[in-house]
């Protein structure tokens, strides 16, 4: 029987899979949930604690993947599709399970219409809570097409605006969509306009904020000075630092 946590989690998964919206909400809820993992536990050889053994599946290319499930109903779908598959399972914290299996390919609800594969790099980002902020230098003759994004993940602009409000170095922020035809690279493009130390000031917080939003498409970040032209100059900023207010009354000596 499904509990309210499982029902909510599967509703978030369905919304993320069907519409592409609410992905950060789903990932955050998944990490904090209890998941079901086919396998069993037995006493460790040294008599201290227990040793868990997980039952993998074989993917279409012959490689091994480890399934896990949001509910018994989703696990039953695999057991029906693969007669003789392991019937025992462990209920584990998703965060703990991911940490135990770092480096492995995992697949959530593999026989459900809303299944989701998680690759090792993606899992590491979500566990560590930081999206990588690595330099990417384009050659002068590289063609780059930019414009307004057709779709913006729920809450992305609000989350970023709240973050930038805490960093006075950021004067304006623009969000666009970038395509590099040479390699068909597609990504969100975030341009921050501010002082010279903007990159150093915001990189750590920005990496944490972008970790959920970068799971569907990468988010490239560029920095520009207050008077510099940049790739998104033609767009309206989604964040502008409010002008500082000055008192109408001067101080008297």
From TrEMBL:
Annotated SseB protein C-terminal domain residues:
139-241
Where in the numbering of this chain does the SseB protein N-terminal domain appear?
Answer: 9-124
Looking up InterPro entries in the UniProt record yields:
SseB_C, SseB_N
Q: Which Pfam families match?
A: SseB (PF07179), SseB_C (PF14581)
Q: Which residues form the signal peptide?
A: none
Q: What's this protein's name? A: SseB protein C-terminal domain-containing protein
């Amino acid at each position: 029987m499904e509990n309210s946590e499982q029902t909510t989690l599967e509703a978030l998964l369905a919304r993320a899979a069907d519409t592409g919206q609410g992905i950060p909400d789903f990932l955050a809820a998944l990490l904090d949930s209890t998941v079901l993992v086919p396998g069993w536990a037995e006493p460790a050889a040294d008599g201290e604690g227990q040793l868990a053994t997980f039952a993998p599946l074989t993917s279409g290319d012959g490689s091994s993947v480890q399934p896990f499930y949001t509910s018994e109903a989703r696990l039953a779908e695999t057991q029906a599709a693969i007669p003789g598959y392991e019937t025992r399972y462990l209920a584990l914290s998703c965060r703990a399970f991911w940490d135990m299996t770092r480096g492995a390919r995992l697949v959530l609800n593999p026989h459900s219409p809303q299944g989701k594969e998680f690759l090792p790099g993606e899992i590491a980002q979500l566990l560590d809570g930081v999206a990588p902020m690595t330099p990417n230098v384009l050659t002068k003759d590289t063609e780059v097409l930019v414009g307004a994004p057709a779709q913006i993940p729920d809450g992305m602009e609000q989350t970023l605006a709240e973050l930038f409000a805490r960093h006075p170095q950021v004067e304006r922020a623009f969000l666009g969509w970038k395509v590099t035809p040479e390699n068909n690279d597609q990504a969100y493009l975030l341009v921050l306009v501010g002082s010279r130390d903007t990159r150093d000031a915001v990189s750590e917080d920005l990496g944490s904020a972008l970790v959920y939003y970068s799971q569907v498409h990468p988010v490239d970040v560029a920095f520009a000075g207050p008077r510099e032209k940049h790739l998104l100059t033609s767009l309206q900023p989604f964040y502008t630092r409010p002008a500082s207010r000055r008192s109408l009354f001067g101080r008297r000596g």
